Amino acid sequence: MRRLSLIAILLAVPAFAQPTESIGKIVSPFIDEHTLVVVRADVTGVDLGSILKLASMVMGEDAGELANAVKAWVKDFAASGGKTVLLTYGAGDYPHFPCLIVPATESNRKPLGEKLVAAFDALGKEGEAITLHGCVCVGTKDALAVLKARKAVERPELLAALDVGRDGVAQVAFAMSAEAKKIHEQVSPTLPAELGGGRIQKITRGLKWVSLSIGTGSKMPAKLMTEAASPQAAQDLKGFDLLALQTLISQLLRIEGESDAGFDKRMKALLNVRDTAIEGSRLATQWDLATTLLEALKVPESAPAERVRSANNLKQLMLALHNYHDVHGRFPTDSRDKDGKPLLSWRVLILPYIEQDSLYKEFRLNEAWDSGHNKKLVAQMPKTLRSPRQAAALKDRTTYLAPLGKGFIWDDPKGLKITEIADGTSNTIALVEADDERAVIWSKPEDISIDVKNPFAGLLGHYVEGVQTAFADGSVRFIRKSIDPKMIWAMFTRDGGEVIKE
User: Fold this and answer.
1) pLDDT digits (tens, 9 = 90+) for 181-224
2) Closest CA to 53 of 305, 252, 355, 301
3) Where are the domains of the chain?
4) Whose CA is closest to 217, among 419, 15, 435?
5) pLDDT for position 5
6) Structure pTM?
């Protein structure tokens, strides 16, 4: 799974060779009225220098191993004639993992398909390869079914965003169809306060398209182009762009104990490297992506780097939960015997989805975690289950726990279906990073019960200012302890119908 995760990083921010194909023509058959995003990258001549610097700060000791795996994969892919990799995604694709689309000739379709299927296998998914519209398309069976059934429609704004970023070596194009804008206005008529508040029409009616492109070189020069509906809309979107970046930086990079003045100074330093200009209805922002990210992670005592590594662990665990759901139709839960007695933690059941299939096969699933056989495996806790903040002495214990309570995601002994999360996956907490006092033996069917009167109990040991959480949609958010306790309780429940105001 980690191999494909880093491959995804390479596809997003690499230093690749220049494109030569008409991307708009290739990708058009795969775009319909629901498509929101098109991603393109050229996987030839990869220079991992800058990416490895970032990976080492985020992933720590795992970075070298992951980098070697990615180097080997890219080399094999290029040797098979692979170059451009595309993916499209929108509401019609949810909740499936996106298919990878690779332009190919008749002679190299088979080897390219095999390389991508192998990558899907490393992710813990059963990938398949088909030929569609002259491309090799690789994805899960369900995702490919959606792709094959897609009826293409003309999306000139999305193609315009692609065309603007065509000189980049990697790009992301975003545009909403008229139908998507209408749905957003009905479902979420108001923007969050941290994004300036006001009516969502500022985005749905003021924004035509967005294009992010990455250039060559170790600094990874980035260009963000935004086409607005009018010059005034461009001015409004400039303010929105700044607020969105400030919110993202605050969520990811603020460290516990850091003063408001200190954080504001650091944030301004990050934002000041951006060069923004408006010409008519077009907003253009340029910066060196690699340089900015490296500076963002250079903070005292590497605390944010630890937090980012912990967030990466939580993301890997959430990806594993979703992969398990894709295969079994439900999220995992603790395994039980015929009388309902818990035997093994849900963490054991997701081992195949975090590249621990061999360890999984060693467990006797019909025995308890502390049986004579299974207890010997406790010492082999995977690195993904170890928080960078937990004490070194907790060698066989984890602080990544499932929050337990009535109406929570984990309260169904059979395992919950994703469709049963009535409050929405983006509003419902699935995992938390607890303090060391609540650490549990990783294979033991034990987690943390949340107290309605004090929801933060047991969660503030690693980060003084708040708690690291993973939501059911796979996102990781740092929730500050200053939030109203009723609000975080609402985030724990899956069908309470509460209005979430962070």
Assistant:
1) 888 788 778 877 766 777 888 888 989 999 988 887 777 788 88
2) 305
3) 1-175, 177-210+217-298, 302-492
4) 15
5) 44
6) 0.61
